[in-house]
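U., I forgot to send this yesterday:
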Amino acid sequence: MIGEILSFVNIILSFSILVVILMVYSVYRRVYLLWFILSFSIVPFIFVYSLIWSPGSPFKMGVVVYPISVIIIEVSMLIAQKNLIESIKSGEEEEYKMLLRDDIAILRAYEHLANFFIGRIVPLIGTSSIKELLESRIEKHPVLSGSFVGVDERLNTRALEEIVGKIEVEEISLAFYELISGLLELYSAFVPADKAIEDLRKATEKVMEKNAMIFDWIAPIVLFKTVLEPVLRKCRQEDIMEIAIMVNRSKSGIRVNKDGKIDVGMLYKEYPEKEKTDFIIDKFIYALNKMRPIIQQSIGEENANSMITSNFRKMPTNIKERLYGEGLVEKLPKGILEEEKVTLMSREKLIEELVDRRKKLENAYRELAEAELGKMKATFLDVVAHELRTPLTSIKTYVELFKKGKLGRLTKTQKEKLEIMEENVDKLTNLINDMLQIPSIDIKELELRKEKFPAEEVIGEIVEDCSTLLSEKSMSVSVNIPSSLAIQGDKNLLGKAIKNIIGNSIKYTPSGGKIKISAKMEGDKVHIKIKDNGVGISEDEIERIFDPFYTGNEKEGGMGLGLSIVKNIVEGHGGKVWAESTVGKGSTFHLLLPGGKND
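Result:
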């Protein structure tokens, strides 16, 4: 039994591993993964087979399945390993990029770049000049020791890979830059300069496709050697000499010789640990601004701008996109890549406009949804109110007839029950009236009912209406409202809102408590404060007290509509209502309403 359970568990684990490998294969689509899948698929087969066939089975040859399965697994694993190693050695697939160390990857990239030009020079002059150049560079830069041009007429740097971890990348880059510059000079001696520069663009593009990590190290070559140097060489000899003297004495990090060739070797020595791209762009812009006035004087402003722009556009796409993305275009002087600048600016403006339009659309949809919801809510409540009011009216009528004895004599108990019934009918009627005030107020209808009325007068009337409740709880109310203040709006609705708040203060303030009502002008609004020393409201409830039907921890039977109605009325008038409170010390309600001075 235990053996069967273990076999079952092994089957599940085997299938799980198989599923994972299938998922990996669906992403990477490698041949060696198919062989791994084949080998792992045999494992669950063996476990299933072990449950079906046993040593006591009549079919004795069934035992052969086990060694055959093991052989298939071993062969599949060997083929998978062989395919994986070939994939890594080829340097073409993702495994090569993932498993190769960064410094070795950069070394290999330089090797590819050098071999690109060696492959073009050898048919022209053979390998002897290339070997001499390599020896001279090894003498100057010992880090290249161990590199050689093999019988296959290709540069081999595998010996460097053994020690590359002990050498700074900057040192390797400087050494290979000088080697590649020498190869480029050899090549330029047999082909036109424009052809050599064009091949340099192709070479750097291919190297970038194989390994993007080389970008920071070949960007100086591309910018200075393919963009600026071809323009510099078109200048008059005396102008080149003037540029050389000025640039060589500056902090540009480059050197210009009498033929207009640019040496960027010093830049590799100055490379910062981080933000290398920004460093190179800044150095290029600095050098360009230094040279540009003399170049324009030598070959003409329009011609100079046109040549530099053309060279920028001929740059390898993968390098150009990186440089443009790092802000190179925006830093270029006027007249260079003007179309690209307009495109970038237009794109930014277009993005801003699209974002703005999206926000406007979202707001419009939200307002439309709220308007539709408001209409639906109002219609629903109207229907509910009508359906509830009709039976309530009938119940109230019969209650009154019973109480008056029109339908026969009643006992004392029956009269008491009828009074309870009448009170509940009145409560339900008031609840329905309150519910009808929850939907958004019709602004057009409200405008017709607006009037200007004294704040002191309406609040005084509300306090008078509440005098009975105040007396029952022995509470005092102080009113401090300037007689000059006036409120603009629907007097009945705003009076109801203020009365609801005062009623709440009375309800939640213990006997003998105090309520203070004050008002003052704030801009074009009247700010009314209603402060009590009641039980207060907790922080987690203060934001929810204006929500419909929210009652908090109330146990006295309220429906939670009073403050929701207040918020609806106040906001319908373009005002604002909020509360501040401390538990055990009381609450202050604020109403900000349209108003001004009495006429």
